[in-house]
Write a structure and sequence with these properties.
Layout: H1 14-32, E1 44-49, H2 55-66, E2 70-75, H3 87-97, E3 100-104, H4 108-118, E4 122-124, H5 132-145, E5 153-157, H6 163-175, E6 178-182, H7 192-204, E7 207-211, H8 214-218, E8 223-226, H9 238-245, H10 252-257, E9 264-267, H11 278-287, H12 296-299, H13 306-324
Parallel strand pairs: 1-2, 1-3, 3-4, 5-6, 5-8, 6-7, 8-9
Helix pairs in contact: 1-5, 1-13, 2-13, 3-4, 5-6, 5-13, 6-7
The protein binds phosphoric acid mono(formamide)ester and norvaline.
Residues 126, 131, 162-164, 227-228, 231-232, 268 line the site of norvaline.
Length: 325
């Protein structure tokens, strides 16, 4: 995989994704044992962020340092990109200096443009369309807590058209997951990404279900996954999303509907599970909700593996860098 960019899981075979996950498990084991793995000593990577981030930024930074790689953070107001310099010229300049480039931002075409012109590996740290490094962490966490990925019954509840739903569709199809999207019809995935996932699933034996029927989606689930009801850049759509998604909140009743006492709860984070955030407080004042996509009870319950999942961002991103640099 040396020299390859990581823009979406569509570009990788199941065995390549398997290698990324196995590498992540091994690097996690080494880190826990205090074994150094400075596999790319002396290299340098640029971390570009148009949107804010806690996990992705910190995961790339810590992972890079563990690999002996020096990371340079470039926030949206730090460089000329967009305002004074094109994606193409920025990619060519950064590619002359850095050994790899991470990009988080709005348009997926930006990360594609960087990859086209940089001549070094480019990693997608989230766009409006895909968030592929998150899927590796989710799958690693499912392997740790459910014990298997192939055939695991995974339900994504929420905005079935967002970057997480898109990426889980592709990743699940590749890895043979029994994947269900539970969402109101207005937020069902449509078009190319769903068709691509179905075509991949036909080859791998994965199952893909899209439904607004709770019972059908939740039956026997091994894991329930949710995400914010309005993604970064869509904060003006909360009113509409609350109206559509309130019946799709992950709460105790939903966990019970799975009839699996060991069902796991996943969330890419950040999450509105209480009112301890500015937006959470505003939503409370405006709509009277003390949480949105998941109740505080479920978030803090024994079912919840969200902080293992957050930690696994670092191990999986390290694996991607280790394999592609
Ligand atoms: N899950 C995730 O990408 O988190 P950040 O937005 O904090 O990077
Ligand atoms: N769908 C969310 C994911 C955050 C990690 C967003 O794009 O804001």
């Amino acid at each position: 995989m040396r020299g390859r960019s990581f823009l979406t899981l569509k570009d990788f075979t199941p065995s390549e994704i398997r290698l990324m996950l196995d590498t992540a498990h091994e690097l996690k084991r080494q880190k826990k044992n205090g074994q150094a793995h400075r596999l790319h000593e002396g290299k340098q990577v640029a971390l570009l962020f148009e949107k804010t981030s806690t996990r992705t930024r910190c995961a790339f930074t810590v992972a890079a340092n563990d690999l002996g790689v020096a990371p340079e953070f470039l926030g949206k107001d730090d460089i000329q990109l967009g305002k004074k310099e094109s994606v193409e010229d920025t990619a060519k300049v950064l590619g002359r200096m850095f050994d790899g480039i991470e990009f988080r931002g709005f348009k997926h075409s930006t990360v594609e443009g960087l990859a086209e012109f940089a001549n070094v590996p480019v990693w997608n740290g989230l766009t409006d369309t895909f968030h592929p490094t998150q899927i590796l962490a989710d799958f690693m966490t499912i392997e740790e807590h459910v014990g298997k990925l192939k055939g695991a019954k995974l339900v994504f509840v929420g905005d079935g058209r967002n970057n997480m739903a898109n990426s889980l569709l592709i990743g699940s199809a590749k890895m043979g997951v029994d994947f269900r999207i539970l969402a109101p019809r207005e937020l069902h995935p449509v078009g190319e990404i769903l068709e691509t996932a179905r075509a991949i699933a036909a080859e791998t034996g994965a199952k893909i279900m899209v439904t607004d029927n709770h019972g059908e989606a939740l039956a026997g689930a091994d894991a329930i996954y949710t995400d914010v009801w309005a993604s970064m850049g869509e904060e003006d759509q909360f009113a509409e999303r609350i109206a559509l998604l309130k019946p799709y909140q992950v709460n105790r009743a939903m966990l019970e509907q799975t009839r699996n006492l060991n069902v796991k709860f996943l969330h890419c984070l950040p999450s509105f599970h209480d009112t301890n955030t500015t937006i959470g407080q505003q939503i409370h004042d405006q709509y009277g909700l003390d949480c949105m996509e998941v109740t505080d009870e479920v978030f803090r319950s024994k079912h919840s593996v969200v902080f293992d999942e957050a930690e696994n961002r670092m191990h999986t991103i390290k694996a991607v860098m280790a394999l592609t640099l």
